[in-house]
Amino acid sequence: MGGVHFGLERIPSLSRSGVGRAEELRSDHDALRAGWAGALLLYVDRTGRFRATAEGALDFAEPSSAEPEPGAVFMGTRDGRHVWAARRPALSGDLADLMSVGAALSDDDAGLVTGAVAVLGWHDRARYSALDGSETEPSLSGWSRISATSGHEEFPRTDPAVICLVHDGADRVLLARQPTWPQRRFSVLAGFVEAGESLEACVAREIAEEVGVTVHDIRYLGSQPWPFPRSVMIAFAAVGDPSQPLRFQDGEIAEAAWFTRDEVRRALGSGDWASSADAPLLLPGSISIARVMLESWASESVAD
Known about the structure:
Elements: H1 29-36, E1 40-44, E2 50-51, E3 73-78, E4 81-87, E5 95-96, H2 98-101, H3 107-125, E6 136-139, E7 144-147, E8 153-154, E9 159-167, E10 172-177, E11 189-192, H4 199-211, E12 216-226, E13 231-239, E14 255-260, H5 261-269, H6 289-298
Parallel strand pairs: 1-4, 9-13
Antiparallel strand pairs: 2-5, 3-4, 6-7, 7-8, 9-10, 9-11, 10-14, 12-13
């Protein structure tokens, strides 16, 4: 039967990137100092906002000091210029954030802001060593922190989470709503990977815990960084049985149901969670890999 296996039809918005990270320069202080004068600076405030033009492009600043700013992170190179990101408690001008403009940014801008929001958020939370509690200082151009007491080096954390589109191998998909979400807002299922657990095992466990469904034919689809604050969403599809009773066992799901492909197509045409449409089903916005998954599944046709 067709429709069992499908792939993502487009690259998720926050997975796009055209900036070379130039890791070899992170410890080359002479090269970084030489490139600083012509560098592009991306400032991000503590809420994840940054300056953007009316056309939706990043509005960079230029260096006002002779050497790289303390706390700035070297993000890589772009059109032959060094690019840095730094935290600014308050910004003025036209501001945007990834949630509102992530899908509209260019590949270069999307990759740069996603990385900047993630690594700067890590610095905010890593000021003290997880090993001995001592203060840490940025090193390696912002890509690590070192304990002032022990010299122990820590690197930016990324927490893996699985996100899975469960379908019946034919024309229905299982969607759910968390207790904190308003009525009619549904999405695919997701959860964090536990220590010592494979991604596939996490898919099976999370779905069983959240809705009581046993899945099989677990297949990888793609991934997307999700810097809110430091996750990567690893996408799968899996097959479940709609006749199996739904049971909400861990309190993370308030409501779940099987929807037909036509119902999902109509919901995708109605907009997203931000839509004011009086639709019976509202789905995630374009910045989320969940939407790409649903669009890709909905575009498939099921053979007789």
